């Protein structure tokens, strides 16, 4: 009895954490979205919720189609994408070297980690009025909000990724007589890059959040601005439509970065 139960338990344990095949993953993901949209349509068609508060999928699709036809949707996407790119790239270019330095140098870590922790707990929303005072309401203010919302988190996440470099790899490099620079460029950074890439992927999602915050408060274009205008006229179909578009854009970027990570870092276990 016990001899047959043990292999069964072993087989069950072996399946925990097992990854789905790509087709199975895609099928499950698509099915989830289809079910949610179907439930949304049923609730709307049955009149369970006032259309003022929850318009149906057809109304939302129609509102987006009108925005696409007059060109406003594409213009808003372009403006918001530009702001995201500038703010996020600026934060990343500054955060990755600084986080790497914190990860390999204990004194730099002691000097900067408490400061980074202190600042990252400050709500970025509270800085929106200050950024308007500091730099006005032009594009610089949008870049600054996105930078503030991502930079400090990136520094800490990159530092953690670097610190998790396997010690045996570093010891091997030291045994081979590699200099500190070679250790960093040949062992530490290549080992940490998959984790750094994942950190950037996560913080890119946060960047979209802070973009909308900046555009809701002080903008004359962009997706957040369009949501604000729609709110003034109670156009909930357009509000939901733009929120859905934001989600779709974020999902596309996230999946693109996942695919890029699998391709670039196939040498890491679990990414091939």
Walkthrough of the structure:
InterPro entries: MetI-like (IPR000515), MetI-like_sf (IPR035906). It holds the Pfam family BPD_transp_1. It is found in: Cell membrane. This is ABC transporter permease. This protein is mainly α and 272 residues long. The protein has 2 domains: 31 residues; 209 residues, MetI-like fold (Orthogonal Bundle), CATH 1.10.3720. It has 11 helices and no strands. Helix 3 crosses helix 11, helix 6 packs across helix 7 and helix 10 runs antiparallel to helix 11. The radius of gyration is 24 Å and the shape is globular.
Walk me through the topology.
Blueprint: H1 2-15, H2 22-45, H3 57-69, H4 72-104, H5 106-120, H6 128-135, H7 139-163, H8 167-175, H9 180-217, H10 223-232, H11 236-264
Helix pairs in contact: 3-11, 4-5, 4-7, 4-9, 5-7, 6-7, 7-9, 8-9, 9-10, 9-11, 10-11
> Taking all residues together, what is the mean pLDDT?
89
Quick one: overall form? Answer: globular
How is the main sheet built?
A: none
- In whole angstroms, the N-to-C terminal distance is 39 Å
Give the helices and strands as they follow along the chain: HHHHHHHHHHH
DSSP summary, beta strand count: 0
Number of domains: 2
* Low-confidence sequence ranges: none
Helix-and-strand structural type: mainly alpha
Short description, anyone?
The protein contains 11 helices and no strands.
Features:
0% strand, 272 residues, 80% helix, single chain, 2 domains, globular, 11 helices, mainly alpha, MetI-like fold
């Amino acid at each position: 009895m016990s001899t047959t139960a043990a292999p069964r338990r072993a087989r069950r344990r072996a399946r925990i954490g097992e990854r789905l095949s790509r087709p199975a993953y895609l099928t499950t993901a698509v099915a989830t979205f289809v079910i949610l949209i179907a439930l949304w349509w049923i609730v709307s068609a049955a009149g369970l919720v006032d259309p003022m508060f929850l318009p149906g999928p057809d109304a939302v699709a129609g509102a987006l189609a009108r925005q696409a036809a007059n060109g406003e949707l594409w213009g808003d996407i372009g403006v918001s994408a530009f702001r995201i790119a500038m703010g996020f790239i600026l934060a990343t270019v500054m955060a990755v070297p600084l986080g790497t330095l914190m990860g390999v140098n204990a004194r730099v870590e002691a000097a900067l980690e408490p400061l980074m922790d202190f600042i990252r707990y400050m709500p970025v929303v509270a800085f929106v009025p200050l950024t308007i005072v500091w730099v006005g309401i032009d594009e610089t203010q949008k870049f600054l909000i996105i930078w503030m919302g991502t930079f400090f988190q990136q520094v800490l996440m990159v530092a953690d990724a670097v610190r998790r470099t396997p010690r045996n790899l570093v010891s091997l490099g030291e045994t081979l007589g590699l200099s500190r620079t070679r250790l960093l460029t040949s062992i530490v950074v290549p080992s940490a890059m998959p984790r750094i890439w994942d950190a950037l992927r996560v913080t890119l999602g946060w960047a979209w959040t802070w973009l909308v915050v900046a555009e809701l408060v002080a903008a004359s274009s962009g997706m957040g601005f369009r949501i604000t205008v729609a709110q003034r006229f109670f156009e909930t179909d357009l509000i939901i439509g733009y929120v859905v578009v934001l989600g779709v854009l974020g999902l596309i970027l996230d999946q693109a970065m996942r695919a890029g990570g699998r391709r670039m870092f196939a040498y890491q276990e679990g990414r091939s």
